[in-house]
Amino acid sequence: MTTALEDGLHSVVGEHGGVREVFATALPHGSEGSAPLLQRLHGVVTDSRSEILELRVFGALEAFPSFAETLRTLFGDIDWPLVFIQGEDCSGEDIAGIQLHGVAGTTVETIIEDGRPIGRVFEDEFARYCILGNLHSFDSSRSRDRQTEDTFELIGAGLAGAGMNLHSIVRTWFFLDDILGWYQAFNQVRSDLYSKEGLFDRYLPASTGIGGSNPQNAAVVASVFAMQAKEEGVSVHEIPSPLQCPSMDYGSSFSRAAEVTTPDSRSIFVSGTASIDPDGASVHLGDVNAQVAHTLEIVEAILRSRGMDFSDVTRGNAYFKNSAGAVSLKNHALRHGLPVSRLVVSQNDVCREDLLFELEIDAKRADRGS
Questions:
Q1: Which of 1-5, 84-88, 189-193, 289-293 has the lowest mean pLDDT?
Q2: Phi and psi for 302 in degrees, rounded to 5?
Q3: pTM score > 0.90 for this model?
């Protein structure tokens, strides 16, 4: 893995199976607006000669029109998923951060549904990979449950376009408008579908479910990472959390973390993680500083259980219920060795009213695990 850091931009490049995968995080550097962030990312794409797989943005919805205009000016026609989620910067900027996922050294295909790009597919020596994004119902007037079903139908269609199915999913992200008003109902729809498709008998994807509205006014927007092995020595499996119970113990259908192993690398995807104890109860109520400390301990324990640490992080998100709590992150991250320059920090509701902080991270190492 190679990393590069400059003001407002952190890029990580990893090689596996004969391709180069690029992860870049652009953060606001003072009151500069979205254009300089996009210009820095455009430089990453140009310098690495990579193709974009997905662009994920957290910011104020009011900033979306000007952001979209600048994006078209710099990048031209968009043939990759663009995900824009309301998640205000905790320092008051219009854009909290932008995450770019790209790849170089291989052919990239685009999956189109209803005239818009919803996914990208590429291969390395060992596997075929599918990244889906900006998946949502085309009819925002439908009930939330029905929109969730629509979203999963679109996930299925996108995966089919890559020659895959729901069993190919490694990791999901679900951004729910008004999450506190219907998270349990969302979980029920997801659980029913996973049960019908037999996922409980094999593997439940790692996942994040976080609050955040979107420019399409949809009840839920999803992103997906899926993989299909081509060679021996490729596997996907659940990683339990040493400090927490399985999420299924309190009705949420996802794994705490997932690990992808290939002959020359390992990737870990840690689900959205909050201050929840081994019995499934929220702890350190009302104390955001303690919740941040506890959450980092939980995530670090997951990484260490697989021989990694925070230095292996390629990208991540830190979600605060209240922006004022974000000041507590820097010192804890420094103590644990977590590079905050690889995190987008934004204000978003977490899935429980009493949870003030949630962290998700991806990590990668160029070796094979035990």
A1: 1-5
A2: -65, -50
A3: yes
Distance of alpha carbon 208 from alpha carbon 170, whole angstroms = 12
Residue whose tokens read 């499996």: 237
Instruction: Look at residue 370 and tell me whether its pLDDT is greater than 60.
Output: no
Cα(132)–Cα(156) distance, integer angstroms: 10
The pLDDT score that the predictor gives to residue 10 is 93
pLDDT at 5: 67
| pLDDT one-digit tens code per residue, 303-345 | 999 999 999 999 999 999 999 999 999 999 999 999 999 999 9
Residue whose token pair is 């998946």:
135
- Residues 131-174 pLDDT 10s: 999 999 999 999 999 999 999 999 999 999 999 999 999 999 99
Residue 173, strand partner residues: 208, 223
H or E element at residue 155: helix 144-161
**306 token code pair:** 């697989």
CA distance 261 to 266: 5
CB < 8 Å & 24+ apart, contacts of 193-198: 193/149, 193/152, 193/166, 194/166, 194/253, 197/166, 197/167, 198/167
- Is the Cβ–Cβ distance between 98 and 44 less than 8 Å? no
211 Cβ contact list (under 8 Å, min separation 6): 175, 176, 177, 178, 179, 180, 348, 349, 350, 351
* Rounded Cα gap, residues 89 and 269, in angstroms: 24
Considering only CA atoms, which of 240, 312, 235 is closest in space to residue 278?
Answer: 240
> Which stretch of DSSP H or E encloses residue 182?
helix 179-196
Count of beta carbons in the 10 Å neighbourhood of residue 345: 24
Measured distance CA(313)–CA(344) in Å, rounded: 13
Q: What domains appear along the chain, each with residue ranges and CATH number?
A: 1-105 (3.30.1330.10), 107-231 (3.30.1330.40), 265-370 (3.30.1330.40)
Instruction: Decide if 369 contacts 307 (C-beta within 8 A).
Output: yes
Pairing of strands 313-320, 357-365: antiparallel
244 DSSP 8-state letter: S
Tell me the DSSP string of 201-219.
GT-PPEEEEEE---TT--S
Spatial separation of the C-alpha atoms in residues 88 and 349, rounded to whole Å: 11
According to the model, what pLDDT value does residue 33 have? 80
**Helix crossing, 34-48 with 64-75: angle to 10°?**
30
